[in-house]
């Protein structure tokens, strides 16, 4: 199944809501939001309580921190697209289950294909595992990765989830520092040739 724009993608998900875990009605679904031509795509874990009420991603306490740091890093919300690997709030905000992540995979993949971001920022371990399954956020946060995905080359920047940043000062400092790198990384990605070797030296130069 191929989707050509986000509105058709969202309509299809709501039309077939009965086929997805956690969904009792179409309004349970929290779609991604933002610029369909965004250079940066942010992918989180799953909606929480406030997201389920407002039907928007990242609007609770962690979302407010995310949007604040985003603006302070020089990026406007209109320049990014924000989504989650699971589109519905899990009970009691528990971690998403593997089968729930798998159920929504088609739609997240379609969002990536439609937007074609220059950079994907993963927020937390669950979205990072989609592209980098064998590593820990604490070991690779803020380091740019070049990955092969669906026969495409993607640049992925793992970061802590903003909820983790709210719980620990050290994590919050790293979260803010990592966000400050995005503009420099985008500038490099835009000028890098397709076949350019992506080495540790290049990564360190960006950081």
Account of the 3D structure:
- This protein has 207 residues and is α/β, with parallel strands linked by helices.
- It has a single domain (6-190, 197-206), classed as Uracil-DNA glycosylase-like domain (Uracil-DNA Glycosylase, subunit E, 3-Layer(aba) Sandwich), CATH 3.40.470.
- The protein contains eleven helices and six strands.
- It has helices at 6-15, 49-54, 61-72, 98-103, 105-115, 125-131, 137-140, 162-167, 169-179, 182-191, 200-206; strands spanning 33-34, 40-44, 80-84, 119-123, 145-149, 152-159.
- The protein has a six-stranded mixed β-sheet, with helices on both faces.
- Strand 5 (145-149) and strand 6 (152-159) form a beta hairpin.
- Helix 1 packs antiparallel against helix 5 (105-115).
- The longest helix has 12 residues, at 61-72.
- It is globular, with a radius of gyration of 16 Å.
- The chain starts with 5 loop residues before the first helix and ends with a helix.
Any idea what the CATH superfamily is called?
Uracil-DNA glycosylase-like domain
CATH class, named: Alpha Beta
The H-and-E topology, N to C, reads as HEEHHEHHEHHEEHHHH
State the secondary-structure class. Answer: alpha/beta
Topology, number of strands: 6
The N- and C-terminal alpha carbons lie at a distance of 38 Å
Question: Mean pLDDT across all residues, rounded?
Answer: 92
Alpha carbon gyration radius? 16 Å
Helical residue percent band: 40-55%
Q: What sort of overall outline do the alpha carbons produce when their principal axes are compared?
A: globular
CATH topology: Uracil-DNA Glycosylase, subunit E
Helical stretch tally: 11
The biggest beta sheet reads: 6 strands, mixed
Poorly predicted tracts of residues? none
Kindly report the spatial arrangement of strands forming the biggest sheet. Answer: 1-3-2-4-6-5
The appropriate CATH architecture is: 3-Layer(aba) Sandwich
Strand content: 5-15%
Integer count of domains: 1
């Amino acid at each position: 199944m191929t989707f050509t724009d986000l509105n058709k993608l969202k309509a299809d998900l709501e039309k077939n809501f009965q086929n997805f875990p956690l969904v009792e009605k179409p309004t349970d679904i929290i779609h991604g939001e933002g610029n369909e031509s965004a250079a940066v795509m942010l992918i989180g874990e799953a909606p929480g309580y406030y997201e389920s009420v407002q039907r928007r991603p990242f609007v609770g306490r962690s979302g407010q921190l995310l949007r604040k740091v985003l603006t302070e890093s020089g990026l406007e919300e209109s320049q990014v697209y924000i989504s989650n690997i699971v589109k519905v709030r899990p009970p009691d905000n528990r971690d998403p289950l593997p089968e729930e992540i798998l159920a929504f995979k088609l739609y997240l993949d379609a969002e990536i294909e439609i937007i074609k971001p220059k950079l994907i920022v993963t927020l937390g371990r669950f979205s990072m595992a989609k592209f980098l399954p064998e590593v820990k956020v604490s070991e690779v946060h803020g380091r740019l990765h070049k990955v092969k995905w669906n026969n495409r080359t993607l640049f992925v920047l793992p970061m802590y989830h903003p909820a983790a940043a709210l719980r620990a000062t050290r994590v919050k400092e790293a979260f803010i520092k990592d966000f400050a790198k995005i503009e420099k990384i985008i500038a490099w990605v835009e000028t890098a040739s397709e076949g350019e070797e992506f080495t540790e030296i290049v990564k360190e130069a960006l950081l």
